[in-house]
Task: structure prediction
Amino acid sequence: MVKSQTERLQIMMVDDEPAITESLSYSLKTAGFEPIAVGDLSTASKTLANTQDIALVILDLSLPDGHGFDWLKELRQRSSIPVIILSSHDDEIEHIVGLEIGADDFIDKPFSPREVVARVRAVLRRSQTKNNEQASEDLLGSSSVKTQSEVEQEADLASHSINQQANQATSDQKIGLVIDYLQYNVFFNGKSLALSQLEFALFEALYFEQRVHTRAQLLKKAWGNGVLVSERTVDVHMTSLRKKWAEFDACELIETVRGVGYKLASNLPPITVKGQPIK
Result:
């Protein structure tokens, strides 16, 4: 539901540095959001529990009562609320860990408040798109009361589908990599690579245009226009993508072209596409 001007989206900032929260609060208010500033993880948990309309969390990692990663892990067990991490360390491993445990984006200090606002908007757009797609699937999946004939027909179709899936499973072993638009994920020999939305978008871009892509081109394809994201963010997601692939196969998935960007490796197993992308 679209919020009116009097119902601004609430953004919770978890940071114990007043200078940072004051600066971000001003920028968020100017951009039309309602900022909420808390200084520790305990207060953050209580605020989330007592406030139903928080749309996104901006989370610092070093806080008086714990580490932001531990809090995020616990949060992901019960909530999919978008989280953007703020860090004072430009550490690639730290970025990868944050993305792996459920962060939606990562921003290094010092930062531009305008950049943070742009990242907030981008993450909220992606989250809203995902929620809309899920709502559509739920609506299409809901059914009215069925007649006996319809129930029998569905049972026959289900039996046929099981047989097809059994045959397809054997076929997938020979196919290798599968880009599956029914689940928006990538599979290898029937097993999911468990890619994030951005990792999937990057792999998709490399596959459908099998040439060298610059980091700027990949940023545009995966994040969209008008989003201020560092090109280093592409490197972080590529490292995570390679790490997930390495658990399945020893060959290279993505090749780095020095001084230019990335391309899909030439010696990959066959790649098959299932379904159609959402337009």
